[in-house]
Design brief:
CATH superfamily of the largest domain: P-loop containing nucleotide triphosphate hydrolases
Helix content: 40-55%
Largest sheet: 5 strands, parallel
CATH topology of the largest domain: Rossmann fold
Radius of gyration: 18 Å
CATH architecture of the largest domain: 3-Layer(aba) Sandwich
Number of domains: 2
Structural class: alpha/beta
Shape: globular
Number of strands: 5
Number of helices: 9
Strand order of the largest sheet: 2-3-1-4-5
Strand content: 5-15%
Length: 201
């Protein structure tokens, strides 16, 4: 029996406020399967008993409520002030996300899939992808986008941006750069990008 071809793995990344979500929606419109790593990690932290047990062992019983619901504020407070605790949490969650992603990819039948994560380069994951798309936007536009959708101040947004690698650094390691300049995304030709990904061997 002829084995089915495994889809190409395309990473899509970009700093906070770059507009990744808007670009991803354009890929969804043309039928590309999308895996949102952060969203899936949150789901697995709630549904995976393996992850639950490890988080409780590492962070204590208060990491989950009596009803078994993840205590996000408790966990966030723990890892926000302690980089070692953040590394410990990532060491628990990331391997399970990778397993989940591999299983998900094996169930897809498209030419390629998109894996979205803001921290592909920060986590040194670039070697896992056939192609990497970087979404960028001017700094002021990024700041304004984040301030509109959250309760963060301008200073807090800038702090977040400064914690991530610069677009210049990310661009050196990316295959396709998408500059998300406007709300309507009229400047982005998704079919052209799609064709480039498929033909990129």
């Amino acid at each position: 029996m002829k084995s089915e071809k495994i889809p190409k793995i395309v990473g899509i990344t970009g700093g906070i406020g770059s507009g990744k979500t808007s670009v991803i929606k354009k890929f969804e419109e043309i039928g590309v399967p999308i895996y949102i790593a952060d969203e899936r990690a949150k789901q697995l932290m709630q549904s995976s008993q393996v992850i639950k047990n490890k988080i409780i062992d590492t962070f204590g019983e208060d990491a989950y409520t009596n009803q078994g619901v993840l205590n996000r504020s408790y966990l966030t407070n723990k890892v926000f002030v302690d980089s070692d605790k953040l590394k410990a949490l990532n060491a628990i969650v990331h391997p399970e996300v990778r397993k989940d992603f591999s299983k998900w990819v094996s169930e897809q039948h498209s030419a390629y899939v998109l894996y979205e994560s803001a921290l592909i380069f920060e986590h040194q994951q670039e070697g896992s992808f056939d192609t990497i798309i970087l979404v960028t936007a001017p700094l002021e536009q990024r700041i304004n986008r984040v301030m509109k959708r959250s309760q963060m101040s301008r200073e807090e947004v800038i702090q977040r941006i400064n914690k991530q690698l610069s677009d210049e650094e990310k661009a050196k390691k990316s295959d396709i750069i998408v500059e998300n300049l406007d709300k309507m995304l009229n400047n982005i030709n998704i079919i052209e990008i799609n064709n480039k990904i498929i033909s990129n061997n």
